[in-house]
Amino acid sequence: MTLSFDPDTLPLPIGHFIGDRLVSAEGVIDMRRPSDGKPYAGCPLADEALVDRAVETAKAALKSSNWGGVRPRERTVVLQRWADLIEKEAGTLAKLEALSSTRPVGHLVAGDIAVSAEQIRFFAEFADKEGSNLVPTDDASLGMVMTEPYGVVGAITPWNFPISMAAWKLGPALAAGNAVVLKPSEMTPFSTVYLAELAIRAGLPAGLINIVLGDGAVTGNTITGHPDIGKVSFTGSTGAGSAIMTNIARTGIKPMTLELGGKSPQLVFADADLEKAAVAIAQSMLSNAGQACVAGSRLLVEESIAAPLAEAIVTRMKAAVPGPTWDETSEYSPIISKRQLNRIHGIVETAVAAGGECLFGGAPMDVPGYFYQPTLMAVRDSSSPAITEEIFGPVLTMQTFADEEEALALADHPTYGLAAGLFTRDLSRALRLTRRLQAGTVWVNRYSRSRDHILPTGGYKRSGIGKDLGREAYHANRKSKSVLISL
Q1: Which single residue of 6, 143, 442, 464 could bond 135 by disulfide (Cβ 3.0 to 4.6 Å)?
Q2: Which member of 293, 302, 328, 390 is catalytic?
Q3: Is position 43 annotated as part of the catalytic site?
Q4: Model pTM?
């Protein structure tokens, strides 16, 4: 299959998806392609009335289909058919996502889309395998912990991995018997709309997935504060997560899952396999141009190996070649917007002015679109914004340490605790430090997720509340009820 395409001729599913069809709407948010900066579409903005319509549609669909009360295997079978159709339509999904996002089309079919189908199958299998439990009581009574769906789940996904993040939200919520009203990012909405269309074609009862497009201030706030939404799931920045918590508290009380920002460290000790470490560290920043919550953007390296490791990382950074996301040979991603490109460069310039040293990169690329050079910076001042702020770009800072205690002190960020990487051949050290690192995920001698969907993801500190993926994500979409029966 040829994946490269003409970005000017790709048809787009512009509109909200409510019930089983597109709802036409005027484009009100101008959209530009990150690969060349050209305007290409307008994203509709759902107001309170349209969000109300989506929620009412979801409630009616739950009632008419009895989705939460059918034989659980029926939910499993429908979701598996949806996963099959996602794989079959991977080419179309990849093009819709590549056009507006930072994801190269060649990465999407074998990567994001295939993994998303796997994750939906993974959660589908929970439907008839996880349920209520008998609990120990005395002989005169019977104790149970029963679980049931929340009803309508509100979900908000970010722009950096649109299909993957939608699968993270939709898979467990639907498997657990809920309906979903989901808002994708206004910068990357169209692949998510098509994903919902595929679910209906797979046999999911109409109205169980509703996609409303819009911004955070209007559409997002209406979803998170809606009285008929029983649970909220959000992936995005820490600032937006704080605003969602405030909005929920202002309008009522409901559970939430928040996967938020990160400023994750990668610790490299002198006994590590430097070649393996250099490959993993460089790739963690080159992948999607560092635009990932878990990006390992703080390199902490033992003093004696700092120079050779930096050289090995720069060698790999030099190989990055920018290319439009609609070319299947492209590997290195653009930045999502001109505004974000300028923000990245501003942080780099501030760090350099304060004494940081750019070992490589440090400027926008002189090509069409919003591309930034892969950048390695030696930074001594831990109060530098390059160290404290989530840059969300291909900027890797480097600090050195003398021993384990100094490494841990540098790794402990005052705000974030999403992920951490650790490179060492010493098993005892790996286990010691894994226990002490303040992060929701620790990777040892690697820095990337695998296709082991049973491993949950989520952060410490202000990097979030609750978990995505794993059985934890399924259980987070069901509420529990204690029952005690006298015999």
Answers
A1: 143
A2: 293
A3: no
A4: 0.96
